[in-house]
Design goal:
heterodimer, A: 368 residues, alpha+beta, Gyrase A, domain 2, Alpha-Beta Plaits, Elongation Factor Tu (Ef-tu), domain 3, 3 domains, 6-stranded mixed sheet, 6-stranded antiparallel beta barrel, 21% helix, globular, B: 128 residues, OB fold (Dihydrolipoamide Acetyltransferase, E2P), 6-stranded antiparallel sheet, 3-stranded antiparallel sheet, 9 strands, 34% strand
């Protein structure tokens, strides 16, 4: 059987850069470039990196009642955000399970731009259409939108210089129409690495021009192109959840520790279930853990957390802590095992590895 | 396309063996390294352990995945590369040199002839 993998507008660029390409949810995407995942990860922490995230889905909710639809779908208060703000939110089912996590960009009360996970694009669009029905327009612009993330301590300087010197002032989780390297784009002060930086949305035709200009500016500063491998290790170190690993239909945002993005004083899909869950108390929670030094193991997605000979939880993400050392991960565990400092045992391919629950991000960037 | 050293013998699972007298050195090939990406942890048996041809003797973790290491021949572990505990990246850098894993005393030196030579291994890799 042959399947045709989808290509982003930057596919030729990745090929030329010597990227190793893999099938990622039907997309032919760079998992790493010749520098390798570890060097790419460090480049983002110490200088900057460029990510092609054009595979992500984008749509507009548009119309006089768009605000009402956004308010009903999003767990976070996207509707009351000021124009020009980007808001991280979950989309929940009536059960409280998570359909996806995404960012709503408020362009006006009549227009929200939404960026969703690549693997969920079709599902999310169906979800939007089902719940917007005739109330507002759901316009899929995934194929007309390229997305480049520029992340790292030197990212803002590079984008600001190429953008005419005004973008550095843009606050976190804000966006603005900009011209970067002669390319019209939407510049958002957002990202998925735990670093400062931008995500730039532009037309597919302009994407190579924008990428090449950014790359040219980044290389002398120690910048690198970054593949999906480092994107995953970066987001894990910053304790940012990944849908399909740490979030899914069977877990709620409260269990995932995302209560800050759930505003229960509003009415939205899933709100009654989440209020009830909050009142009852959580039976299980997503926790961060580090594998104890002597254990010589790395916990991976799907490994079991065991307690007294019984499986009590599941590792949802895990890997090496590239800046922090050792092995780190996230797991759903019963609330009695969720306090920081609690000792866990993780079944790493038949070997019981000792781990410790830790609070907060594994890696936190220095305040600039 | 990498070329494979002619003085080594190879398994289908991408381990190599360098016969050096009574003790044979074992590691993994450049092809395996390219597939794995950045290696972050190598878990090896202890000196004195017995390994069995075709059976798992350890694990290797890269950033993205974990893989088993299979013994190319049966024998007794007489040395392990302890440096890999602190420098697993040596396997990426020099898979046939500093990135070696085990020294084995083979139980049956005839097992060497069951392993592939470089040209056969090249063909095996090309078919993957």
């Amino acid at each position: 059987m042959t399947t045709t993998l989808r290509r982003t507008p930057l596919w030729d660029v990745h090929k030329r850069l010597g990227a190793k390409l893999i099938d990622f949810g039907g997309w032919d995407m760079p998992v790493s470039y010749p520098a390798g995942t570890i060097k790419e990860h460090k480049a983002v922490r110490e200088a900057l990196g460029l990510f092609d995230v054009s595979h992500m889905g984008e749509c507009y909710l548009r119309g006089p009642r768009a605000r009402e639809v956004a308010a009903r779908l999003a767990t976070n208060a996207v509707e009351t955000a000021p124009v020009g703000k980007a808001v991280y939110t979950l989309l929940c089912r009536p059960s409280g399970g998570v359909v996806d996590d995404c960012i709503f960009y408020k362009k006006s009360d009549d227009e929200f731009f939404v960026v969703v996970n690549a693997s969920n694009t079709a599902k999310d669009l169906d979800w939007f259409r089902e719940h917007a029905s005739t109330t507002c327009d759901v316009v899929d612009v995934s194929d007309q939108t390229a997305l480049i993330a520029v992340q790292g301590p030197k990212a803002v300087g590079v984008v600001d210089t190429l953008g005419g010197g005004t973008l550095a002032e843009l606050p976190s989780f804000s966006f603005v129409d900009a011209n970067v390297a002669g390319v019209a784009c939407m510049a958002a002060r957002t990202g998925y690495t735990g670093e400062d930086g931008f995500e730039l949305a532009c037309s597919p035709a302009d994407a190579p021009t924008l990428w090449n200009a950014l790359m040219e500016a980044a290389l002398p500063l120690g910048g690198l192109p970054i593949g999906l491998g480092a994107r995953d290790t970066l987001r894990l170190e910053a304790k940012l959840p990944l849908y399909g690993n740490d979030l899914d239909d069977d877990h709620t945002p409260l269990e995932a520790g995302l209560g800050w993005a759930v505003k229960l004083d509003r009415e939205f899909l899933g709100a009654p279930a989440l209020r009830a869950q909050k009142a009852r108390g959580l039976e299980r929670q997503l926790v961060g853990f580090t594998i104890d030094e002597g254990a010589r193991a790395i916990a991976r997605h799907g490994y079991a957390v065991v307690d007294g000979g019984e499986i009590v939880g599941t590792v949802t993400s895990g890997g090496p802590g590239i800046m922090v050392g050792g092995a780190i991960g996230l797991a759903y565990v019963p609330s009695r095992l969720a306090a920081p400092g609690t000792k866990l045992t993780i079944d790493c391919r038949g070997k019981g590895a000792a781990a410790t629950v830790v609070s907060g991000k594994f890696y936190k960037r220095a305040k600039s | 396309m990498s070329t494979f050293p002619a003085d080594l013998r190879y398994t289908h699972d991408h381990e190599w063996v360098r016969p050096q007298g009574k003790v044979w050195r074992v590691g993994i090939t450049q092809f395996a390294v390219d597939q794995l990406g950045d290696i972050t942890l190598v878990d090896l048996p202890k000196e004195g352990d017995e390994v069995t041809k075709g059976q798992r003797f350890g694990t290797i973790e890269s950033v993205k995945s974990v893989s088993d290491l299979y013994a190319p021949v049966s024998g007794k572990v007489v040395a392990i590369n302890a440096q890999l505990k602190d420098s697993p990246e040596d396997v990426n850098g020099e898979p046939y040199g500093k990135g070696w894993m085990l020294d084995l005393e083979p139980n049956d030196s005839a097992e060497l002839e069951e392993l592939m030579r470089a040209d056969a291994y090249s063909k095996h890799v090309a078919s993957q």
